Amino acid sequence: MKLITAIIRPEQLDDVRSSLESYGVQGLTVSSAHGYGRQRGHTEIYRGAEYAVDLHAKIRIEVLATDEVAWDLMDIIVGSSNTGSPGDGKVWMVAVLEVMRVRTGERGTAAI
Question: Where in this protein does the record say O-UMP-tyrosine is found (predicted)?
Fold first, then answer.
């Protein structure tokens, strides 16, 4: 089993979510995140005052997957979140030793 984590632009969430659902993903976790990559921060002017924006608003998506579909899900996330601009995000995959569904006690791929 694999845990796929993606950091994407907030405006790309609907595209990524619908693409994953079309593939058959039945569950995912979405949370807010703030950070920066190569694009670093920038300055903005608000009510005449200039201030630095060091951290950009991002969305963190986590999906548990079987080994057989994990690479497909990564490709789907990258394809549906890519705008071609700096700050599109990152996607990574890590191995999961065990998963257990709290409600039923199911383990392994049955719990996904």
Answer: 51
